Automatic annotation (TrEMBL):
Residues 190-211 are annotated as: Disordered. InterPro entries: DNA_primase/pol_bifunc_N (IPR015330). Residues 8-182 form the DNA primase/polymerase bifunctional N-terminal domain. This is DNA primase. Pfam families: Prim-Pol (PF09250). It comes from the Bacteria. Residues 190-205 have a biased composition (Low complexity).
Length: 292
């Protein structure tokens, strides 16, 4: 425990909120008193006083809570919450799925060698909203930012039993502009959406059919509505956005896979769980007659 404890305090000392995962890299189950989001969407996970409930929402920099957490889950894995709250975004490179460090894009920075042979490159969060999602246009690279977390050293990878470890001794640096452009880019949309005879669009809220003049702006508006919705309106807003984005899919303005990924990322950034997100997207697409 002392090695993990020292590492947890060191991370917290950098301002990175830490929490504890179960031995399988999954969050610890909620206590009996804490409802799931399905049971009570109004339960404030961010403000919940429980020590280990609600996954990364339990993350803290408070030394007393950290000690109590490690005592409560003595064989857990240490994790760091990423995103604006931590001032961190992490590029997660998985060579087993084709990921590789791109030195033109990725400046040398604080680096963790993962227990599965990959790399975590830690960068300063640029501010604003950075979605946790696959890096656009890359295989085997994920962005861990708002609504995300990473397993931290010296945790042992549950499958390989090898430790996560820092390498290189570098400080956390800011992203190069080229990487920031990729990481902060809105999800990809077709620059020239077409409306074909075989795939007619359904009418929008204003009853019009046909060409979407600015798909990038329209998609950004839908996603922004999701990420800025009031807590009590998050699920309804995501459903509404899913219907809007489904109409864009029907107009060939966005690839359906990218559409679902974009909505999922926005839902996560708005602190919704994956089950609610999936239900809202499937429902929204179904109600627009668009397959998911
Ligand atoms: Zn709770
Ligand atoms: Zn609880």
């Amino acid at each position: 425990m002392s090695v993990l404890h020292d590492a947890a305090l060191a991370a917290a000392g950098r301002g990175w909120p830490v929490f504890v995962l179960g031995r399988t890299k999954r969050p610890v189950a909620n206590c009996a008193d804490c409802p799931t989001t399905e049971q009570d969407p109004g339960h404030n996970r961010e403000a919940c006083p429980c020590l280990t409930c609600h996954g990364f929402y339990a993350a803290t920099t408070d030394p007393d809570r950290i000690r109590a957490m490690l005592t409560a889950v003595p064989r857990g894995l240490l994790a760091i919450r990423t995103g604006a709250v931590a001032g961190l975004m992490v590029v997660d490179i998985d060579p087993d799925h084709g990921g590789a460090i791109d030195r033109d894009l990725m400046a040398p920075t604080y680096t963790v060698a993962t227990g599965s042979g990959g790399w975590h490159l830690y960068y300063a969060h640029p501010g604003g909203s950075v979605l946790s999602r696959r890096m656009p246009g890359r295989h085997g690279i994920d962005i861990k930012a708002d609504g995300g977390y990473v397993v931290a050293p010296p945790s042992l990878h549950p499958r390989t039993k090898r430790p996560y470890r820092t390498v290189g001794g570098r400080p956390v640096v800011e992203m190069r502009r080229a990487l920031a452009a990729v990481v902060c880019a809105p999800p990809a949309v077709s620059p020239t959406p077409r409306v074909t005879a075989t795939r007619p669009t359904t009418p929008g809220p204003d009853g019009r059919r046909g060409r979407i003049s600015s798909p990038t702006a329209l998609l950004a508006a839908h996603l922004n509505a999701v990420t800025t919705a009031a807590p009590g309106a998050r699920r309804a807003t995501l459903y509404g956005a899913a219907r809007g984005v489904a109409r864009m899919v029907a107009a060939d303005a966005i690839d359906p896979t990218d559409a679902v990924a974009a909505l999922t990322g926005a839902g996560r950034a708005a602190q919704q769980n994956d089950r609610d997100i999936r239900a809202a997207i499937v429902g929204g697409f179904r109600d627009e007659g668009v397959p998911t």
